[in-house]
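Practice problem: MarR family transcriptional regulator
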Amino acid sequence: MKMEVFPTQEELAEHAKLIPEIDPLSVLAMLRIIQASEEIRANIGNVIEREYQISEGKLRVLIVLHQNPDGIAPSVLADKTGVTRATISVMTSRMARDGLVEIESDTKDKRGKILRLSEHGRAYLNQILPNHYLRISRLMGKLNREEQDEVIRLLQKLTT
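Answer key — structure tokens:
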């Protein structure tokens, strides 16, 4: 997905006349970050969907469940994966149907549920992740170690 709707420096300068705090270079830099992020996510997500028939959202759910082997409440899983509780409910019900996730009653709160990665889900994830991480490593291999550290530092600075 190639975004071609970047404003020109001149257009941004016109807006800055109305609102002097607008910095044209900052706007262009952020739009480029957004464009790069969308392209990278689309490319990586397309491979995962094509090769393993799993969405990026379901992959995130599996990864979080893998990181929480004792199980996790659906509300916490929703927060960690950035989706609504309703979406997690539908998504994990389908994943349980497919044998990837186990849904159990919470022993501490009988009204609550605990979600766990099933053995099948763990094996499936172990099949996906090595190649997924290899694709990411190859993409990031375009940058040397210092550049990778700088990207991490700068993105953390922008998001904190």
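Discussion: The two ends are 27 Å apart (CA to CA). Students who identified this feature from the tokens alone can consider the problem solved.
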